[in-house]
Amino acid sequence: MGEVLARVRSPEVYIVPIFISEGYFTRAVLPREFGLAGPVTEREGRRIHYCRPVGSHPSMTGALRHRALTALGAEGDPAAACVLILGHGTGRDANSAAAIHRQVDALVALGAFGEVRAAFLDQEPSIAGWRELTARGDVVAVPFFISNGQHCLEDIPAALGLRGPSDPPLQEEDFARGPWHLSDRRLWYTPAIGSEPHIADVILDLVAEID
Prior knowledge:
Order of helices and strands: HEHEEHEHEHEHEEH
Mean pLDDT: 92
Largest sheet: 5 strands, mixed
Shape: elongated
Strand content: 15-25%
Number of helices: 7
Helix content: 25-40%
Low-confidence stretches: none
Structural class: alpha/beta
Distance between the termini: 23 Å
Strand order of the largest sheet: 5-4-6-8-7
């Protein structure tokens, strides 16, 4: 990262973390690697602005709602369904999970769904225990992740019960297979929220917010 910044010649630089939350990486690792002194760093004739991560943008709540409603389509009733917002979680920084819980509260306030819960890969409540988190028959799992990488194609599907230990990773087209019938439940699993097309607009909006 420092090497890339050294090649930049523009006098005004905006760094936008394509991360979900203001957690360990955005608060400790990125500032260290870029040599940042705070929200604004003056160095070598340049002004470097450090923006908020894309996951903190208010439009993310609408994106989550859209993802869940699109997944349910005509087959499910939103008022009877539970939306699970899936996060990574970490013991390094409590703010990582706080970002997910804020989205849960915001989605509850919109009132579109019967229930909204949070679940995590690396902390409690765990994604693997999703059956205990809700008694609803219809469940929509939306990963609050940036990309459809290993977590979304392997780890989360395994925790949800969509693939076994020896099964190949899910493919992009598998997101459209829902609902998955798991015993007495119907489960829809969506792509990562970071794959929403409007992320480019979010980046520009966060830059404009600095100005």
